[in-house]
Fold:
Amino acid sequence: MSELATRLERPALWVEADAAPAPMLPPEAPIAMPRQAFDEPLAAEIAAPHTSPHDIDRRRRILAAGTVALTALVAAGPFVLFNRHGFDTLETLGFGVFLVLASAIACWFCSAVAGHWVLRTGREQDDLGFAPHPPLPTRRTALLMPLYNEDAEAAFARLAGLDASLARLGASEAFDIFVLSDSRRESAVAAEQAAYRALRPQAHSRLFMRRRADNAERKAGNVAEWVRRFGGAYEFMVILDADSTMAGDTLLRLVDAMQRHPRVGLIQTAPTITNAGSVFARMSQFGVRMYGRVAAAGLAWWAGAEGTYWGHNAILRTRAFAEAAGLPILPGVKPFGGHILSHDVVEAALLRRAGWAVHVTAALDGSCEETPPTLLDFLQRDQRWCQGNLQHLRLVGAPGLNAVSRAQFAMGAMAYLSSPLWFAGLVIGLIIQLRYPADWDSFWYFLHPTVSPFLLTSLLSGLLLIGPKLLGCALVLGRPGECRAFGGRKAVLKSMALEVALSATLAPIMMVANSGFVFLTLRGRDAGWRPQRRDADGVAWGDAFRAMRPQMIVGALFCMALGFRPDLAVCFAPIVLPLLFAAPLVVLTSRRSLGERLARAGVLTTPDDHGVSAMPVVFRAPPRPTWEAAR
Structure:
């Protein structure tokens, strides 16, 4: 890293010429990548891929039946309450909102139950059968890392580790690494050049770099331009983010699976989070590591060969991607028209529409990424994702897509529409209560609860919300070796309790933020494209108060309304208090020093913190002079 950090004299901002310098790029191998159309149905019915589970229809019926049953069960309480004197207009509206939200969390819970069963019984390998000791690849693979004004030293350090991991396995000659720069800041471009020149003489795989003169269509356009120019030389390509990496063993297993299953177009791994420092990042890291596998395994169980794509840490068949996944330009203006923002889910749907299998797997370790270090950075990214996911609503009815692809579009949009629905449900419920006089018996209800529809609905709703977390925790506690890697049973339970408490506390803050994002998107506001901060340490108090002004205003408005029904204060406290104290919460959770204190106390730690890493990366591999000479 000291060599990577060495700065050359800052060169002028450069743009690749038509004839790139020989050391920078290999000979071109063009391949056609036509834009697809959504306004025409396909000519023929597409058969199910051979890697699709034979009982996939039964799995989906089980998921649907469980979702319906749990939704009906959790909705029974409010139905009984509202139906005592007949539904009025406001109660009907509130009950409808509740049904939508209840069905979403019921589906999430049922999927998690399936994922827990899959992992508990060791069935995560059933579909693709990854080899424990895969042979060296016989086909070439390109590793692509798109950059946009990122920390070049950190990004190239990740590539150095990945390159060394492949060298340890003797697989370097089967992989080429491409850095695809879309950067526009002169300092970022200069840093990328310096890091490239420092790493290239040491790299065991061939390392290339190119920068686009026009960064149209953002990351999707960056990758598509590479496919059209160089994709013909590579059977497979692996997409990485600037903050992600993969182990060499994992790459070999992915390539081997693609070689054995020629109709598989994409395999998406389930990356864990690494290198977390702040409280917020550690909370995310622990949650993904503890519960993420359960969610991924559940999705893989019912999606089968019609899975999704998250845009990175995935392997794709290059020709299949070129032939089937060229993104259309949607008619109309931003934010719903123009270039497709959340391109990954659309590309997966296009691959499946053309008959290629798309799989999500929870069977592979060794796939990692980093997370935004603060809540403000997380929300900045979420605003862009919100716009992209809402844009997918235009494609739900597109001809030729299968039902699972349509469902995934709807689920992605629901991830953000749930926030304004939750907010609307709270407002409607409060308005309904304001029509009645104060009932101080209800103020002490939680101290002396009695069996009632309200209690049953509250308990069941809570179980559905935290059930996937409980299932992930139970999985770890049931595996002694893995439990020790997390620090032991007590550390797991303490960490889970804090993670659940922090998630519940931050949820109202994110509800208001995402509701605002949905509102701005529907009004036509474009979220833009800003680089992601990945290593910030702390948020200034002034920045926190400015960013959290909407949350604090909403909290104050709730307090004013509760002045007319103070007996409801206890019920609304979990919502109102985090909103009122949103700014201090942002500052507190952004502190790296506090995160390190928690880690030293064994709280919110993962196997990486205890020296048990999923990334068997070798940073210094034996020199291979014959490879360098051959170049």
